[in-house]
Each structure stands twice: as structure tokens, then as C-alpha cells.
UniProtKB/TrEMBL annotation:
Official protein name in the record: Probable membrane transporter protein
GO annotation, cellular component aspect: plasma membrane
The keyword Ribosomal protein is annotated on this UniProt entry: no
Annotated membrane topology: Multi-pass membrane protein
The keyword Oxidoreductase appears for this protein: no
Similarity comment: Belongs to the 4-toluene sulfonate uptake permease (TSUP) (TC 2.A.102) family.
Length: 303
């Protein structure tokens, strides 16, 4: 019972992160489910089944707040669904000996990318509420994001959101709202792929249920927080958490001794805390600069 409550709380926290950053639900939830003993395929299947429900709630919340570009949703989400189905089929047929290390590496790499991205080069800001990107850019991006998402237990946001924000051509709230909404198609077809390959054998629908409940509670609040949270600090914190959660599995797969694993983990935790502090300082400096600029603009000219 305690395990289910903890998983439900993780689902709630993961949805808050996902709604605020446009990424993080899958990689955060999958990392925990691997820790409690689920196989990579079952962990990814459980997360994607829960995400089908949370994505509906999140998409509706973003739509009501005007954060969704439906053209972007379709042109990104449809190829994403194709990639997710392929990724689910691939992971389901992969030997568990290889699937565990593969998922740990993917999750750790995604976490490192999020950590570095937000600590050193936060996404550019645009105010365009309709994306100018063409299908030539969005279709390959969707295919890659969907495949990584299913095989890694998460990754749709880190691949899709960061790519769109990095381009700096679409407003962050529109990118996050549209990516979150399109993720419904990705989760749905990943779930279909897992169910077709695995059936329901081994799936614990209590885990799916508590993840879903936690996500549903958080979804409306997350959509509102998207314009309130300091994304740079949150992104750095979440990225480091994902790396730390998966690092020991990666090192174990490489044959590192327990002592080496703990030393490496301590060094990464120290680096993580340092980068979170750096991000917080930079966020405060930028906020102070914006306030100062506004004050100068509003200052009356001398007579």
C-alpha cells in the first residue's frame, strides 16, 4: 500500500514537472518503476497507459488556457504515434538482459541533456502563438521523439519540446501546451504496441491507476503553472534527479564495482547541486535585470 501511495505521489509530481516544462513525466515515472522492480517493457507500458488519461486532462487544460496550436499537434503527434508504436514493439521483443541497461542509458542521457540544457543554455523565447515550422521539420522530429519515448519509458518532451524551444520560433507556452496535447497520440499508440506484444500479462493495473490519479490531480495546476515556474531552475533540478536515479544501473551494466558506483554517484550529486545553485543565481539576475529595465522605461523624463 505504501508503495502505491508513493507511486501516486510520483505521478502527481511528474505531471507538475511535465506541465511546467513540457517534459519529464515519462522519464521520472519510469525511473521510479525500474527502481521498484518492474521490467523495462512493463515500466514503459504502465507509464504510457497512465499517460493516455493524464494527456487528455493536460491537453484540455492547456486548450482552455489558449496554449495549443492544433496544426502543430497533428503534424507532430501523428508521426510521433508511428514512432511510438515501433519503439514499443522493439522494446517488447528485446531480451530483458539488454532492455534494462538500454533503458537506463536512454533515461540517464535524457536527464543529462535536460540538466545541461537548462543549466547552461535555457531555451530562447518567442511570442509566436502559431508555429512557423513545416512538416519537413516536424515529421522526422515526431518519429524520433515517439521511438525514443517508447523505448526509454519517456523522452517525447526532452526530444520534441527542447528541439522546438531551441529553435526560438514559437512561444514557450504554445510549445509546451501543444507537445503535451500531442503526447496523447504517442501514449495511445505506444500502449497499443505494448499490449499487442505483451498482452496484459504482468501488468499491475493498480500501478497504472495510482499514476493516473496523481497525474489527473496535477494536470490543471500544471497547465496554469507553465507561465509561473522558473523553468531554468526546475529543468536543472529534474534533469539531475533523472541522472542520479539511473546512474547506478548504467555503471552496473558497465561492470563498475559498488565502491566506484557510490563514488561516481556522490560526485554527480555534488555537481547537480552546484548546477541547481548556478541556475537559481542566474534566474534571479535575469529577473532583477528585467525589473530594472521596466523601471527605466517607466521613469518620467526630466522637465
Amino acid at each position: 500500500m505504501r508503495k502505491l501511495i508513493l507511486i501516486g505521489l510520483v505521478g502527481l509530481a511528474a505531471q507538475l514537472v511535465d506541465g511546467g516544462l513540457g517534459m519529464g513525466y515519462g522519464v521520472t515515472s519510469s525511473s521510479l518503476l525500474l527502481l521498484v522492480g518492474l521490467t523495462p517493457a512493463l515500466a514503459s507500458a504502465s507509464v504510457h497507459l497512465a499517460e493516455v488519461g493524464t494527456n487528455v486532462a493536460s491537453g484540455l487544460s492547456h486548450w482552455r488556457l489558449g496554449n495549443v496550436d492544433w496544426s502543430l499537434v497533428l503534424r507532430l503527434g501523428v508521426p510521433g504515434a508511428v514512432g511510438a508504436f515501433a519503439g514499443a514493439t522493439f522494446l517488447s521483443n528485446l531480451s530483458t538482459v539488454w532492455a534494462g541497461p538500454l533503458m537506463a542509458v536512454i533515461l540517464a542521457a535524457l536527464g543529462a541533456y535536460i540538466l545541461a540544457r537548462f543549466a547552461f543554455r535555457p531555451p530562447a523565447v518567442s511570442h509566436a502563438r502559431v508555429t512557423p515550422h513545416t512538416s519537413q521539420f516536424l515529421v522526422p522530429l515526431g518519429l524520433l521523439g515517439g521511438f525514443v519515448d517508447a523505448t526509454g519509458g519517456g523522452g517525447w518532451g526532452p526530444v520534441s519540446t527542447t528541439s522546438l524551444l531551441s529553435a526560438g520560433k514559437t512561444a514557450p507556452r504554445t510549445v509546451i501546451g501543444s507537445v503535451d496535447t500531442s503526447e496523447f497520440l504517442v501514449s495511445l499508440f505506444a500502449s497499443i504496441g505494448f499490449l499487442a506484444a505483451l498482452g496484459t500479462s504482468g501488468l499491475d493495473f493498480r500501478i497504472v491507476g495510482v499514476l493516473l490519479v496523481g497525474g489527473l490531480i496535477a494536470a490543471p495546476l500544471a497547465a496554469w503553472l507553465v507561465t509561473k515556474l522558473p523553468a531554468r531552475v526546475l529543468g536543472t533540478a529534474v534533469g539531475g534527479l533523472i541522472v542520479v536515479t539511473n546512474l547506478r544501473n548504467v555503471l552496473a551494466a558497465l561492470g563498475a564495482s559498488p565502491t566506484t558506483q557510490w563514488v561516481a554517484l556522490g560526485a554527480v550529486v555534488l555537481l547537480w547541486f552546484t548546477l541547481v545553485g548556478h541556475s537559481l543565481v542566474q534566474h534571479r539576475r535575469q529577473a532583477a535585470a528585467v525589473v530594472a529595465e521596466r523601471s527605466e522605461t517607466l521613469e518620467p523624463e526630466p522637465a
